[in-house]
Design goal:
Blueprint lengths: L2 H16 L6 H8 L8 H13 L3 E4 L5 E4 L2
Antiparallel strand pairs: 1-2
Helix pairs in contact: 1-2, 1-3, 2-3
Length: 71
């Protein structure tokens, strides 16, 4: 895993850790603030999809998809 990918996930993970409910990629992007590594909802969803494969993030298949940390 590259340092950039870990930085993106760490920033996104922080947003999800503070959330009281599952969030959409767009909501996560808005809460992540200014970050060159996270530039679109698509990028957020891509990062979270990779981490979901590892069992660290739950993807809630709804419209739109929502994400939360596995507990």
């Amino acid at each position: 895993m590259s340092a950039g990918e870990y930085d993106r996930y760490d920033r996104i993970r922080g947003v999800l850790a503070e959330a009281d409910e599952p969030l959409t990629a767009r909501e996560i992007l808005a809460l992540a603030g200014e970050c060159d590594e996270i530039d679109s909802p698509h990028r957020v969803a891509t990062v979270l999809g990779r981490w979901a494969e590892r069992g660290e993030v739950e993807v809630i298949a709804d419209r739109p998809y929502r994400y939360r940390l596995e507990t």
